[in-house]
């Protein structure tokens, strides 16, 4: 049974460690914040200039000067700090952000990622995505295994314009958890009831299966 | 030394057509509302605008786009703007998209007198086309040049008559960087105070970078994505 | 997430001989007094110290020099220190002198993930020897590499338990830059407060750069050149 | 009659313009602050991290956290602002400081300057001097025309290790005011009672004298 978006987020949240500074992209990655394990303290970075992002404000308490990278109104937490965009990307570039979670349109089995541009469609821009993928020490992609047409998004090489090269470390889809290794996508876990063959049939890039692949604990 | 000007119209009076402008803000947060509005009243066109975003149809840089005052937009993300899209597709408007961190760093480089900086953002992508790639250690970087802008239009929370600026929350974003990068920097503030009123430890932009300052009026501070949570 | 340590001795306990340290401060202003004192008690030697100055004979880095714990000093100005001079002339101590702005910028570069920067300081002088010179526009610049330091020892006025730092007056100097540049950054503060006590707009160094923090004791804050004026 | 150090400082102060941001080196340059003309507002930069340097404090009001680049206790003024050393040299490098005044051991007739190192003597370091001379838009050197041995400090080429090249714009000595031009030292003003020949005999580099050279108004 394929995971829901919430389950994907919950599975990614299990990768968090105490003291991590984390940047969460728009979409499924944002949901990860809802599943931070008990007893673990994580600081969320918003690349428009905030460490310590809090939840959405209560109705009537929105501050137009206080938004996240998705332009949503947010709040601060005790220990929050504001800074300018150069320092924000400076700390990302310096590898101080422990984990970046973001969505993707395609990922290659070498860890290349495409998530900003579709030829023929209006291009809105890469925002901070290229900086994040080029600099983050650890990148997890949260995405569906296939696109709406049923085509695999895990490819031998990206077909869309690239956002970054050889940067993705791990992928969590509704079907599987996979690491990027020199041999290709290494299958780590299967969604409950999803077979290795199901995953293989939806993975266009090199898939490595070693021994028994456990089912994910959801 | 007189940096204080009466209002936005006086501040931008010598901005001419064909000029390159930097405009602070992220989305609609921390944008120089008054200066943009004054530009809609001014006889200027063919502007090159360097700004992280291009506003929405009826606010921010969108107001300048409506009037077809912008020839080229240098930004990292330009969604949320139908008129922008129309002009882009019709070829009236030129757009250069660059990574957000690269944009920030190229502004900072100008303010720090660095002619160029190295950043890994965009290596191996179309952003790298025509750019010098250099390897340091085991990583490749692009050489990116400092921006040059005739004017920087920024918005701060408070400022003093010496041009010192303090920003609030995430409205800081690109503002202090662009304040440092303009050949002429025009700052609008929500509150203009006499020198001595700001704590010297708490100033974000030293006045040496600011050439003109005025207290803005009628700030709308529009929220682009109003999101709230339910009361627990 | 626990960054708070009991005292300087605990904070520096894993600093080993042969390590490269950055030490904040300008002259004796804003130096990490407690960490330096703890190092005098620790079994470490052969240190490489990156700091704008080398203290005086009986204070600051001078205390480490007295104990011959320093193998190499990277600084911009090393006057006011007889023991330093003696060790230098006898060949016990190696010294690399670099321009003050270059020192600051090489620290900043590390904190911003920039592998190298361009600066005109030292072009045409012996500082340029063996360095890459590159022309941008009509001006020559040297390529200078980001510093790498195993530990940065900095001193702030206030800090919170998340490692956020606030500096006071000109005791800021190199401290925030080195705080960003250390692989492990140890901050000592005059006052350690719970998270939430510092205004997020007024923090100079975000806690993401700080790995250990403690409240220092018995600050002497020695004045190197006490100068006063007569009452009018 | 040769100028006193105070008179050199006073003459340099006449170069100040309203709104100038100025960096004053140690020695005679520091004295310039005492002679800022009436009606002119000048902001002093101290490269250790302060704009708006005030006078020395009153006895008992010294703050060990508040010093200038010469490590002397100082005060702030209304409008002062503190910053870190990278931003301090950033604003210098970006040409935001309008004028730098500093001392020198030697200046060449191309504008090279030497002021940090004497071979054979203990070298204390260049501090911020190399950054200042390489970046400042306008540099005035305040120095004696000759060294203690009576040798000219205005040379065809510096003999001491250089601090910077082709950077000095103007020199004020106890004998003369001179600009650096492509033809060499252009004599602009003589100290009262000092002849062109006096100056020529103490100037080893190329000296350019055009027409009548006025006496300085002291």
Structure description:
The complex is a heterotetramer, with two copies of chain A (218 residues) and two copies of chain B (232 residues). Chain A has helices spanning 5-13, 28-31, 85-93, 129-135, 196-201, and strands at 21-24, 43-46, 50-53, 76-82, 99-102, 106-108, 113-114, 139-142, 154-155, 170-172, 176-181, 184-190, 207-208. Chain A is of the alpha/beta class and 218 residues long. Chain A has one domain: Glutaconate Coenzyme A-transferase (3-Layer(aba) Sandwich). In chain A, helix 5 links the parallel strand 12 (184-190) and strand 13. The longest helix of chain A is centred in the N-terminal third of the chain and has 9 residues, at 5-13. Chain A starts with a helix and ends in a 10-residue tail after the last strand. Chain B is α/β, with parallel strands linked by helices and 232 residues long. Chain B has one domain (8-115, 147-215): Glutaconate Coenzyme A-transferase (3-Layer(aba) Sandwich). Helix content of chain B is 20%, strand content 27%. Chain B has helices at residues 8-11, 33-41, 61-66, 82-90, 100-111, 175-181, and strands at 20-23, 47-50, 70-75, 94-97, 116-119, 133-136, 139-145, 149-160, 165-166, 182-193, 212-215. In chain B, helix 5 packs across helix 6. The mean pLDDT of chain B is 97.
| Assembly state | heterotetramer
CATH architecture of chain A: 3-Layer(aba) Sandwich
What is the fourth-level CATH superfamily of chain A? Glutaconate Coenzyme A-transferase
Poorly predicted segments of chain B: none
Largest sheet geometry of chain A: 10 strands, mixed
Average pLDDT over all residues of chain B: 97
- Integer count of domains of chain B: 1
What class, by secondary structure content of chain B?
A: alpha/beta
Question: What is the percentage of strand-forming residues of chain B?
Answer: 25-35%
Provide the CATH superfamily of chain B. Glutaconate Coenzyme A-transferase
Give the count of helical stretches of chain B.
6
Runs of chain A in which pLDDT lies below 50 for 5 or more consecutive residues are none
| Biggest β-sheet strands, sense, barrel of chain B | 8 strands, mixed
Total of domains of chain A = 1
Structural class by SSE content of chain A: alpha/beta
Question: What is the highest CATH level, the class of chain A?
Answer: Alpha Beta
Give the C-level CATH assignment of chain B.
Answer: Alpha Beta
